[in-house]
Amino acid sequence: MTSFKPRQIVESIEVLSEPERRRRRSVQERVSIVHETMEPGATVSAVARRHGVNPNQVFAWRKQYQDGSLAAVKAGEAVVPASQLAAAMKEIRELQRLLGKKTQEAEILKEAVEYGRSKNWIARSPLLPGDDQ
């Protein structure tokens, strides 16, 4: 008869004392865990179990990492959704276009006033720039 020895599985358990109930991970730890999940053959569940983290949390960190917001938090910058950034960039381009258009209109009007003055079509008026002489 062969004796059967059951395999013992030993897992480390981290006990947190009150009042803090959850472990706070640094950005470096989060990035390290995310990198582990991207190694060939690694699964998010196995990596999460090894580090004592809920797999959903690791998936959230992976998404933040892919969006670049995990690194932004590391740099101390505010995180803005990509849709808000795209909308702001579109608005900036539109405002720049309008500013260019208005600047061009102002230059054309200045040239028209100068031309009108040279032909004496426009009388001197204190309301026009340069007429306060």
Automatic annotation (TrEMBL):
Keywords: Coiled coil, Transposition. Residues 85-112 form a coiled coil. GO terms for biological process: DNA transposition. The keyword Chloroplast does not apply. One of its GO terms (molecular function) is DNA binding. It comes from the Bacteria. Involved in the transposition of the insertion sequence IS2. Belongs to the transposase 8 family. PANTHER family: TRANSPOSASE INSC FOR INSERTION ELEMENT IS2A-RELATED (PTHR37936). This is Transposase IS3/IS911 family protein. It comes from Paraburkholderia graminis (strain ATCC 700544 / DSM 17151 / LMG 18924 / NCIMB 13744 / C4D1M).
